[in-house]
Structure formats: C-alpha cells, structure tokens
C-alpha cells in the first residue's frame, strides 16, 4: 500500500528532502505558499542583477506533486489531514514541516508605513524595487537597512543594485557580530564603506515617520536619515504559525529530537522552523542535514542529526568573509593568532588551544582563500608553521577531517571514492558523496584531493562549460557564434555565472564581435567595461585617454587641463606615461569623452582586459645613449594593439638602449634596442609578485619584431586561461619558453600565418569605444546616475581638498562643496 508524505514548505530545505526521497515508495505532496517554484534564497540579492526569477530556480523535481500557491492553513493531527487555503484536503501517513522562518521586525514606531519592507522573498524584492522606482527624489535614492548581520549586508547589496545608497544600522558595536570579531568587523566596515555604504553601529532606529513622499528615520544616537526606502533585515524567527498543538523549543521552533521528529511521532520538522533538542539553526547547511536525516528515517533508516557546523564562507559586497569553529575564542584558555594587514585589506585570526597544538577556529576577512584548508582542521593538531605570519596552510589533513560540513563528508570518504575509481572529477564526487552540493565552499578542496590522489584535473571554465577558455575561443571562432546565449545553449548548460560571462565577453570582443556595449555583450560585462571607465572608491569613475608612447602635443595637453578644470577632476601622471583624471560621475562621462574625442583623443582602455600602454624612453631623438627610435616604435606598437581584448591586461615598453629607462623587462612584452635591431622579451609583470620577462628573440629588425609580437599576442589570447597574465601563462605552458619560440618564431605548428591574419583583422577593424558610445543614442542613454532622472548628479558623492585638488571624502574628514 502506498504511503503519503505531505511536506509543508517548498523552500530549499523542503526541496532537498524531496530530492533525497527520489525513487522511494512514498507518494509526496508539497504545499508551497509562494506561486513560484523553489528557488535559491541564499542568492536572493543576485535577483537584482537580472530580475529574472528563473535564474534562481532550483532543479525541477520528479516524483512529487507540488502545489504552488497553495498555503497550508490547518492540520488535523487526529485525522492526519492537511487543509489548504483552497479547501483541498490531503491525508498523510507522515508530515514534514519545512515552513522556514519569518523576518524579525523590531517594534519601531512607523515600521508599517508605506516604503517599509522586509527582505525575505523574491516578492519582497519586487516590492522594494517598486518603492524605489516610485520615489521622487532628484538624484540618487537613499535607503536604510536595519540590521548589519549577514542578511542585512545582503539586503544592502540588493539596494545598491537598485541605485540606492544604503545606510546600514546595526545595534551591536560591529557588523556581522555572530560571524566575525572586532578586528575582522573593523576591516569589513572599512571595505564596505568604500562601496557607497554608510555604517551606523551601536545604535538602532527609534522611530520612522512620514514626511510627504519621504521617510525620516530617527536613530537612537540622534542622527536623522532622509530616506526613500527602509528594509528590515534584523534576523529571523522560526515560522510556527500553524497551530498544531506541538511542543515548541525554548527560542521558538517546533521541538524535535535527534531524528527530527516532533512530539507527534507522525510529524517531523526540518530547517529553520525546527528546534533540534532545543537549538534552532538559521543556516541552510544544518537544514540540508536535517532533510537527509528525515529522508533516511522515512525509508526505515536510523540516521540522526549529527549536529551542525556553523562555519560560513561568503562574499558580501565583493568582500570575502569566513568564520569557522570557535571564531570568538570562547573555549577556556584559547589563544588567538592575528594578522591584520590594513594595507592589503586582509584580516586573519586563528584560535588555538592553550598549548597552541589544536586548531579551534578562526576568522578571515578580505581573503578567505585558505578557508577550505583550515576549516577541516578544526579540532585537529596543526604544525607550528601554521601559526606564523604568512605560515603555510597547505598542511596534511587527517583522514577523518570533515571536508563538507553541509553533508558531513570526511576526507576519507572522498579519497575512497577517488581511489576506487568511482569518482574521477568534481562532478562525480558531488554525485556519489554529495560533497560540494551545499554551499559549495569545499569545492576547491575537492579539486585538491583529486590532484593529491593523482587524478588530472578538468580544465573546464566553470560548471556551465566543460571546455577550457582556449577551447571556447576556438569554438566561437570556428562556429562564428556571436552571443553568450547561443554559446551556452549549444556548448554549455545553465544560464552562466560571473566566471564564464566575462570570459565569454572577452572572447567575443577578441574576435571583433562589434562594440563592447553591443547587445550581444553588454549584459556579460564587469562594472568597468559597462561604463568604459574604472570605478573608484567613492562611486565615481576615472577617464584615461590614450597617449601613445607618452608623446603628446602642447595643444592636447591644454585640452586635458581644460577638461580636468571644467569638470573638477583630480589629475595624475601615471607610471605608464598617461594622464589619469579621477572623480567623474556616470552622467559626466559622455560629456568628458566628447571634449576629448573632438580634440583627437580616444579611449585608453584603462578599464578593460586589453592593451593599456606602451611606455617609452626618449630614444635616439634626444638621448645621447639611445641606439634606436624607441618613441616611434612605442607609438607604432600602441596604435597597432590598442583595443586588443585579452584574458588579462597587457602592458608593454620600448627602451632605446640597454640602460632600460622604460623598464621593458617588467612588461608582458618589452622591447630593448640594440646596435643591430631589437631584443624582444615576453612574460614579465610588476605588481604583487614581480617577474622579469624572458628573452624570446634577439637583434631582429622592426618588421620581424612586429610580426613575432603579433603571433605572440594572438597565441596568448587563444590559449591562456581566464584572468591569466602572460607571466603565469608562460610558466604553465608545456615546454615553456622553448615551446613558445617553436610556435611563434619557428612556426612548428604551422599556425603563424593564421595568427598574423587574426591580428591584421584586429588592426583593420579597430574602432574607438568612446566614440562608439557618443554616436549611438541607445548606448548613450545608459550613462545616467538615475534612470528616472537623467542628467541629475549624484548628491551622495562629495570631495575634500588635498594639495589643491579634489579627492574622495573619507570618514571623519571634512568635505568641500561639490
């Protein structure tokens, strides 16, 4: 006889339960209050990027009857019947409550006024957007998020995506008080305040009042905020509004035992609405673990809830934040090892036992790359080197260390799957162990364990493409595909992500697929490419016109000076022999470009993964040591390769003699004059890890030099990985410099003619991107601070005076009138 399971709640945890029961003998009926299919609530703020709910939908489930838009209004436990809002009744043999949670709204007077919202569902975001769009403020909108925890910062990020400058108000003395400590929170505050957020800690809202079309929020510290929208994101409470007569936990939630069974043996509770032996959990990973327990119990198993790892790793407003284990050093005798690098913008704290032998926990802010290695070591003995500043974290992990906290998967389970041949890549490990299918933070460790076990890793670009970037380049080139949508439909899966979209945009641009802001590419671009300018710390942009070889006429210098003066821009001569102008708002960019373009300037591509500059010394024209015309060659090279889109930025230089005044050997490709011609060096870079370039050819004439550079650049563009500098690419190239010389100098592969033709096509098809915007009204319309008030300056941007120029206002430093 078929038994019926009723699940009340169609969220992520309910979805996981039904998925875990796939193939069982149960008839499953799900009551979903929302009319939408189950979606990824953890990624809620990303909805603002596209306003497409389909992008967040979880994989469709088979073998279950999903009643969308049907709220369960009552349960008759005596008859074992669930009644829906439509009057439908469904009898059950087992009932699982997965009702989740509700937002906590502090009892602030005025909290129910129009314009006040909670942040929990897609419908909530739609309502917030409607409020923002209806606001009458002339300029950038202002909002307040009440709550500076994980959810509050996510809500603030969503408001930023709607063009709102958010104030984040947190009662605790620091941001994210549950996850991070004072030191980490201090850095986090400093980093997020660079992103158009104003943070108020140690205070709360005492009232919210209506003032015409505006909202006035009065804070407990006396500050008044003039707002368009208010969002409450101050935490959650277990949702237990169904009156079932079940016992509740001390802090809310249906009280359940270790098998997630309530006081009624036929009723289970999982996720945020459950209180497991008195403890309620607000993260998705424990909810997933509860779903697995109940699925096992329903199938006759004996699995029990193993407890929850409350470790978290996330990216908030572009800032990496992670905490694990005893992050606040509450264990008696615990010691803390802290490295706070304010210059690099990173903070790390390890908590160890009083004898410094056992890792108890930690906090990472700004750089959480070591999280996958550190978290499984909690409770384990660690080497002393780990506790030194900059100490290695690549230590041997014990076999019983938990790699995946979402599904309690140990290193031993994963290595057994690899060594037995059951799993040979990350996808197969996910399928057979479920590691990596929760929050995903353990995926880097899965890749490392595969490598440690001798399994060669896939070079897939991301989960949506099994191909490497180089393979995708060849696919696009051969098939002449011109859109990301066509490429992912024919050669990938899903809808893409922030890894593959910019990478494909770069490929399309490299193959001369129209203007960078054309319809085929604009939705794929990073912020800088979207506005053809570099975003700065206060929300303004820099304007960098091209000055080939650093050579410029007095007339053009005067134009730059006049533009900087008229628009109030900060000016600086860079190490790449260009003049940068900082402080332009989005709506000012086209006006500035028009003045520059009319004077003969063009985009310097300082915002793109493209050629930046070709620096030069003065060469034989002026220098008594020069042996070749370095300025003339630098100008020729910069004009030839301008606008060349590549996996990473490209820099070059030409020195007129061996004295190397242009620093050519620190560039991606550098040229040094000799008595007999030119030496070409490749694969160098400055930056965090400087690398001297390697000598590729010696004493070649100008024609041969340019021919080899053409081949080198096109070969790099076709074969490098995403965001891979030429230095890293060259070091990872099979055969290294010798192989590169065989390919681009000796033509061992017979592709040099093709590489030269590709470069010739780029040179002939080049068009200035700034001019392209100015000549296209549709593209031009995108350059506005406020879509509902074109031309209105952003009132939240302010400056202060420093050495006779305007620079961004920093906290505590008086501003000057804008």
UniProtKB/TrEMBL annotation:
Catalytic reaction annotation: hydrogen sulfide + 6 oxidized [2Fe-2S]-[ferredoxin] + 3 H2O = sulfite + 6 reduced [2Fe-2S]-[ferredoxin] + 7 H(+)
Instruction: List residues of the FAD/NAD(P)-binding domain.
Output: 5-274
Q: Name one Pfam family in it.
A: Pyr_redox_2
Which controlled-vocabulary keywords does the entry list?
2Fe-2S, 4Fe-4S, FAD, Flavoprotein, Heme, Iron, Iron-sulfur, Metal-binding, Nitrate assimilation, Oxidoreductase, Thioether bond
InterPro entries, sorted: BFD-like_2Fe2S-bd_dom, BFD-like_2Fe2S-bd_dom_sf, FAD/NAD-bd_sf, FAD/NAD-binding_dom, FAD/NAD-linked_Rdtase_dimer_sf, NasD-like, NiRdtase/SiRdtase_haem-b_fer, Nit/Sulf_reduc_fer-like_dom_sf
UniProt lists the family membership as follows: Belongs to the nitrite and sulfite reductase 4Fe-4S domain family.
Q: What is this protein called?
A: assimilatory sulfite reductase (ferredoxin)
Upper classification of the source organism reads: Bacteria, Bacillati, Actinomycetota, Actinomycetes, Pseudonocardiales
């Amino acid at each position: 006889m078929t038994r019926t399971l009723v699940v009340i709640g169609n969220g992520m945890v309910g979805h996981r339960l039904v998925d875990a029961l796939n193939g069982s003998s149960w008839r499953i009926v799900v009551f979903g209050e929302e009319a939408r299919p189950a979606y990824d609530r953890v990624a809620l703020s990303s909805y603002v990027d596209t306003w497409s709910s389909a992008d967040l939908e979880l994989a469709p489930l088979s073998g279950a009857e999903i009643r969308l838009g049907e709220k369960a209004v009552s349960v008759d436990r005596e008859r074992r019947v669930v009644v829906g809002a439509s009057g439908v009744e469904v009898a059950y043999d087992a009932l699982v409550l997965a009702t989740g949670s509700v937002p906590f709204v502090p009892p602030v007077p005025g909290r129910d006024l129009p314009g006040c919202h909670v942040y929990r569902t897609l419908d909530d975001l739609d309502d917030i957007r409607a409020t923002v769009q209806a606001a009458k403020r002339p300029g950038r909108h202002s909002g307040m998020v009440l709550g500076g925890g994980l959810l509050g910062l996510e809500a603030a990020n969503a408001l930023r995506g709607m063009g709102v400058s958010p104030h984040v108000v947190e009662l605790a003395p620091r941001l994210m008080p549950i996850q991070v400590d004072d030191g980490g929170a201090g850095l986090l505050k400093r980093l997020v305040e660079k992103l158009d957020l104003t943070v108020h800690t140690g205070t709360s809202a005492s009232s919210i009042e209506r003032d015409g079309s505006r909202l006035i929020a009065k804070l407990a510290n006396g500050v008044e905020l003039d707002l368009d929208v208010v969002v409450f994101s101050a935490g959650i409470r277990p949702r237990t509004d169904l009156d079932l007569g079940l016992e509740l936990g001390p802090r809310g939630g249906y009280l359940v035992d270790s098998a997630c069974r309530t006081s009624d043996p036929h009723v289970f509770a999982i996720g945020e609405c459950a209180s497991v032996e008195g403890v309620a959990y607000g993260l998705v990973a424990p909810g997933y673990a509860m779903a697995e327990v109940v699925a096992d119990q329903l199938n006759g198993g004996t699995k029990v809830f193993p407890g929850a790892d409350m470790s978290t790793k996330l990216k908030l407003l572009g800032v990496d934040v992670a905490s694990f284990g005893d992050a606040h050093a509450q264990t008696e005798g615990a010691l803390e090892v802290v490295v706070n690098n304010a210059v690099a913008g990173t903070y790390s704290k390890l908590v160890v036992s009083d004898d410094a032998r056992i890792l108890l926990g930690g906090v990472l802010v700004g750089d959480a790359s070591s999280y996958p290695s550190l978290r499984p070591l909690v409770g384990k003995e660690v080497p002393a080197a780990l506790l030194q500043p900059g100490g290695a974290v690549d230590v041997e992990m014990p076999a019983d260390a938990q790699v995946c906290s979402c599904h309690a998967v140990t290193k031993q389970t994963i290595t057994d799957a690899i060594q037995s041949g059951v799993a040979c890549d990350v996808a197969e490990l996910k399928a057979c162990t479920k590691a990596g299918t929760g929050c995903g933070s353990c995926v880097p460790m899965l890749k490392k364990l595969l490598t440690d076990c001798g399994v060669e890793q896939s070079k897939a670009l991301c989960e949506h493409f099994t191909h490497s970037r180089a393979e995708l380049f060849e696919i696009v080139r051969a098939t002449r595909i011109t859109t990301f949508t066509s490429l992912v439909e024919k050669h990938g899966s899903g809808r893409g992500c922030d890894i593959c979209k910019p990478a494909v945009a770069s490929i399309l641009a490299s193959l001369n697929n129209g203007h960078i802001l054309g319809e085929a590419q604009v939705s794929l671009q990073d912020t800088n490419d979207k506005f053809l300018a570099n975003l700065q710390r206060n929300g303004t942009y820099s304007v960098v016109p091209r000055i080939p070889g650093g050579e410029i006429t007095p007339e053009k210098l005067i134009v730059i000076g006049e533009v900087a003066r008229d628009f109030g821009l900060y000016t600086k001569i860079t190490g790449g022999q260009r003049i940068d102008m900082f402080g332009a708002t989005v709506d000012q960019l086209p006006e500035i470009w028009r003045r520059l373009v009319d004077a003969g300037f063009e985009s310097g591509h300082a915002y793109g993964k493209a050629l930046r500059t070709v620096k030069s010394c003065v060469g034989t024209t002026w220098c008594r040591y020069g042996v070749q015309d370095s300025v003339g060659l630098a100008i020729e090279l910069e004009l030839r390769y301008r606008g060349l889109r590549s996996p990473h930025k490209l820099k070059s230089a030409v020195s007129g003699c061996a004295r190397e005044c242009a620093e050519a050997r620190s560039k991606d490709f550098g040229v040094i004059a000799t008595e007999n011609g030119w030496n070409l060096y490749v694969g160098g870079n400055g930056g965090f890890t400087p690398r001297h370039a390697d000598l590729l050819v010696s004493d070649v004439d100008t024609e041969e030099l340019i021919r080899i550079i053409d081949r080198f650049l096109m070969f790099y563009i076709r074969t490098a990985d995403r965001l891979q500098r030429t230095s890293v690419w060259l070091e990872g190239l099979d055969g290294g410099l010798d192989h590169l010389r065989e390919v681009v100098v000796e033509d061992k592969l017979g592709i040099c003619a093709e590489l030269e033709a590709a470069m010739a096509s780029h040179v002939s098809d080049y068009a200035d991107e700034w001019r392209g915007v100015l000549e296209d009204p549709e593209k031009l319309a995108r350059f506005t601070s406020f879509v509902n008030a074109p031309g209105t300056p952003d009132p939240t941007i302010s400056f202060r005076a420093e050495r006779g120029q305007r620079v961004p206002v920093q906290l505590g430093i008086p501003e000057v009138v804008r």
